[in-house]
Design a protein that fits this description.
heterodimer; A: 114 residues; mainly beta; seven-stranded mixed β-sheet; four-stranded antiparallel β-sheet; 11 strands; 57% strand; B: 111 residues; six-stranded mixed β-sheet; 0% helix; globular
């Protein structure tokens, strides 16, 4: 089983619908992140969380919200989906290392808003 | 705001050739990461560089970090087709513990 699991893997939804993307991890990491990937733009940070009570906006948080239900679970919601939110979404986790630690990524959720 | 730039954005190279991908960033940091992404797949960690002058090598790939120049390089030696992928660098912004990614370099190795 993957250490970082995202569901669903693919989703097509209509404009205006609410949708939730879920992420769970078995790595025991405190830090969790949601990124969005668009062609030619790399990965951009949407939200990140250092623990259940610590949630922070990233560079492109407008139109998104998150919930950290437990240390191992971090969900991303689109309250009212719009077509320009069509993208590949990644969840990632990191441990709390003082010297810098690599991030581990889920398999991604491909979201299409029509 | 931290900016991370990679070049080239696209690289087509022949098998057996050498080449370098560059990653420049705009603010002080001594923590830089390289990732590989195959089409339609997730990101896989390649290298973690945590100090000025750090050099890491794995197979035909070698990464280095010059924090004074705010520059990291990913050098490819004698490319093979299996190295075809998109490569990303990412910079750690310190206390905020965010990773800011470059736009990626799509590498295509041809026979």
């Amino acid at each position: 089983d993957a250490d970082v699991t995202q569901t669903p893997r693919n989703r097509i939804t209509k404009t205006g619908k609410r949708i939730m993307l879920e992420c769970s991890q078995t790595k025991g990491h405190d830090r969790m992140y949601w990124y969005r990937q668009d062609p030619g733009l790399g990965l951009r940070l949407i939200y990140y969380s250092f623990d259940v009570k610590d949630i922070n906006k990233g560079e492109i948080s407008d139109g998104y919200s998150v919930s950290r239900q437990a240390q191992a679970k971090f969900s991303l919601s689109l309250e009212s989906a719009i077509p320009n939110q069509t993208a590949l979404y990644f969840c990632a986790t990191r441990s709390q290392g003082a010297g810098g630690t690599e991030a581990f990524f889920g398999q991604g959720t491909r979201l299409t808003v029509v | 705001e931290l900016k991370v730039e990679q070049n080239p954005l696209f690289l087509s190279m022949q098998e057996g050739k050498n080449y370098t991908i560059y990653c420049n960033y705009s603010t002080t940091s001594d923590r830089l990461y390289w990732y590989r992404q195959d089409p339609g797949k997730s990101l896989e960690s390649l290298f973690v560089l945590l100090s000025n002058g750090a050099v890491k090598q794995e197979g035909r790939l070698m990464a280095s970090l010059d924090t004074k120049a705010r520059l990291s390089t990913l050098h490819i030696t004698a490319a093979v087709h299996d190295l075809s992928a998109t490569y990303f660098c990412a910079v750690d912004t310190g206390t905020a513990s965010k990773l800011t990614f470059g736009t990626g370099t799509r590498l295509q190795v041809t026979l």
